[in-house]
Amino acid sequence: MKSYLVDANVALALLARSHAHHEFARSWYRGLGDEEFGLCRLVQLTVIRLLATKRVMGEAVMPVSAGWRVLGELGEDSRVVFVGEDAETDRVLPTMWGYAQPTPQLVNDGYLAALALSTGRRLVTFDQGFREFPGLGVTVLG
Question: What's the pTM?
Fold first, then answer.
């Protein structure tokens, strides 16, 4: 059985019907079968923040507490699991940031790549940039 870790852009697209990639995310989700769909704390918090941001959600914006409930409802699916860090994540994480130039936008991406690698999960995203992380299994939707 494959196990996945989803990027915040996939989780948001899955939850927000108005999202441009909602149908791509829903199609992937429906095709999971009995495979695991992992969420980590960073993704959870990012999705909740985006659901509460009017610039992102428009009229569908919601309070943080409602965003937490929406994620909780998703978590009622037995295939959705929480992915936590372990010592292997701490070992892999610094290897994700070997860039000579400042790259603050890659801090979260490096974390997600390290977490996916250290837990043996395939990362699911809309972001082509994840293909740059050596050894990372990536599914880019869309």
Answer: 0.92
